[in-house]
Amino acid sequence: MISLDSFDRRLAWCLGIGTFILFFLGADSVGFTRDEGYYFKAARDYGRWFDLLFSQPSMAFSQVSIDSNWSYNPEHPVLMKSLFALSDLFFHRSLGWLDGPTAMRLPGMGMAALAVALTYLLGRQMFTREVGLLAALMLLFSPRFHYHGHMACFDSAVTAVWVAVILAYVNRGESIWGHVRLGLVFGLAIATKHNALFLPIVFGIHWLFCQRDRFILAHGKLRLPPIPWWVVSMGILGPLVFLMHWPYLWPEPLERITWYLSFHLHHEHYPVRYFGEGLWDPPFPRSFPWVMWAITLPLVTVVAAIAGTLTQAWSCFQALWNGVWDRKEHAFLLLLTALFPAFLIAGPKVPIFGGTKHWMNGLPILLIIAAAWAWPAILKLAGNRRYLTGVVSAFVLLPGAVTTWRHHPHGIGSYSELAGGIRGAANLGMERQFWGGASRQLLDKLNKEAKPNARLFLDRTNLDAFKAYQETGLLRADLRFARGPSRADWGISFHQPDSDWVISYLRQSRFKPVAAVEVEGVPMASLFKKEP
Fold first, then answer.
1. Angle subtended by helix axes 229-245 and 176-190, to nearest 10
2. Does 384 or 183 have the greater pLDDT score?
3. N or C end of the chain: smaller count of CB under 10 Å?
């Protein structure tokens, strides 16, 4: 492992701060998603508990207080939602610098920025400074990651902590503090989202592979090497941090943790449009995550990722064949941590909704692998001339940067050159939207033309996301939320399998289309007005 110096730390800070500023400046145009509505409400509920904790600490820890303030949205751990709540309390309610929803989005932006910075640090330690920087910028200019970086959600956050745990793992050394740090960081990771629960499995496979020469076969029985200390630290400190961070668990920890795990083990399936087919129920195609990566990441990134993966895999194979492992265990670790999330989603019964966000935690590692292959190729193309190196590197990053800029704020439906862009993906029958955020660009027309107290049906938008639009001043305060199109004067529909009925109903019920949000000529959302 390469040690980090002060320049590396300063560069990581610059990447993180620059990314945060970029996301903050672009957040206003990104509409509120359905899930954000749930998390806004949860954050406000949790915020009441923090108010009580600061004013009457003894009352805050009663079961009545815990159940009344922490019972909403028990499907997810509360680290990020608590940060949303504290950001709302500080930046909105105390200082008044921001409106509430924007304040609650800040922690998500911060975690996305952290993901970019940590990607640089891991790439730097594994390879070189240039590889780390190239990987970090590839991540920043991955259109779908860029979109999720604006959200008050957990996907960019779990991407950051996935990299953080890997960094803690490779830097643990032999010291007690190194192992304690690993356990604590892992605890924060599983307090972010359940994706991180698989990291001990990944590390276990890596450890078994690297310790293969220490297996002992005696008297017909296989004896394993001693259990490593990282297993102890992650196995004890991780669950402790998880339990301590979530007050809702405290009254009935076993019952409530069991419910939480069961919820995700038996998660419902939401439909996905995939090459013209509506995927409603398993079995789902095993190719799904790999194809989605291929047609949503820039083509140059995909080529580098495939070449880099093959290079790292060949390196591991050679080490096994020759019996000389040397430092190749890091190559195997990169392959595992990059590809395991996608392999998991490739299971035919695993829910595949959510675009690419559910295996996005593997993306930074995949991009480090891609950059490790791309950088020597860049040097070769540039003939080791410094100015040409910069030019070639810029051309490698340019497709992602341009696509991110062109598709913002609709990066959730971004497709790359391999699919023919958004228009090509539409012709292929791919999904465009699933979260409701595209309503944002239609609100100005509603504000101008809707009659006082008109009722609005915004598909894929719940009441709390609707209220967030009103709280930020993006939607008139007098306009009312309609729970279905039959009760609405105006309706917004999306082009996705489970919204086809909305479009059909609106077209058949005296509604006429009056506007649409389009990217590359492809409608993302359509606005309908009910005729007298």
1. 40
2. 183
3. C
Q: Which residue has the tokens 């904790």?
A: 53
Cis peptide before 497 (omega within 30 of 0): no
Q: Is 462 helix (H, G, I), strand (E, B) or coil?
A: coil
**Any idea where the domains of the chain sit in the sequence?**
6-367, 437-530
The structure tokens listed for 240 are 């402790």
Instruction: Count CA atoms closer than 13 A to 329's CA, side-chain side.
Output: 17
Q: Determine phi and psi for 289, rounding to 5 degrees.
A: -65, -35
Residue type for position 408: H
Query: Does position 215 have pLDDT exceeding 70, yes or no?
Result: no
Looking at the DSSP bridge assignments, the partners of residue 458 are 492
Range 334-347 burial, b when 16+ CB lie within 10 A, else e: bbbbbbbbbebbbe
Q: Quickly count: other Cβ atoms within 10 Å of residue 371's Cβ.
A: 31
**Dihedral in degrees, nearest 10, Cα atoms 517, 521, 523, 529:** 60
Cα 524 to chain centroid distance, Å, stands at 21
For residue 497, give the amino acid letter: P
Q: State which H helix or E strand residue 374 sits in.
A: helix 363-382
Instruction: Confirm if 242 and 253 have CB atoms less than 8 A apart.
Output: no
Number of other residues whose CB lies within 10 A of the CB of residue 492: 28
Give me Rg for the CA atoms of the chain. Answer: 24
Helix intervals (H) in 79-224: 79-87, 100-126, 129-140, 143-148, 155-170, 176-190, 199-210
* Preceding amide of 143 cis, omega within 30: no
Q: Residue 57 carries which side chain, given as an amino acid letter?
A: P
Q: Which two tokens stand for residue 463?
A: 């009441």
HSE-up (13 A, CA, CB side) for residue 205: 12
pTM of the complete model: 0.96
pLDDT at 219 > cutoff 60: no
SS (H, E, C) 216-265: EEECCEEECCCCCHHHHHHHHHHHHHHHHHCHHHCCCHHHHHHHHHHHHH
Tokens matching residue 25: 């400046």
Joined together, the tokens standing for residue 253 give: 């920890």
Both tokens of 465, joined, read: 């996301």
Give me the helix-helix angle, 34-55 and 463-471, nearest 10°: 70
pLDDT tens digits, one per residue of 337-389:
999 999 999 999 999 988 999 999 999 999 999 999 999 999 999 987 888 99
- Give the separation between CA 315 and CA 376, rounded to whole angstroms: 16
Residues in the chain: 532
CA proximity to 105, closest of 154, 175, 159 = 154
Q: Residue 459 is which amino acid?
A: D
Helix (H, G, I), strand (E, B) or coil at 95: coil
Amino acid at 415: Y
Whole-number pLDDT of residue 213: 66
The closest of 166, 174, 144 to 156, measured between CA atoms, is 144
Secondary structure (DSSP) of 438-483: GGGGGHHHHHHHSPTT-EEEETT--HHHHHHHHHTTSS-TT-EE-S
Lookup: tokens for 120: 């640089």
Q: Using the structure block, give the residue that is written with the tokens 């400046």.
A: 25
H or E segment to which residue 293 belongs: helix 288-296
Using a CB cutoff of 8 Å and minimum separation of 24, what contacts does 84-89 make?
84/39, 84/40, 84/42, 84/43, 84/108, 84/152, 85/43, 85/44, 85/46, 85/47, 85/50, 86/47, 86/50, 88/43, 88/44, 88/47, 89/47, 89/50, 89/51
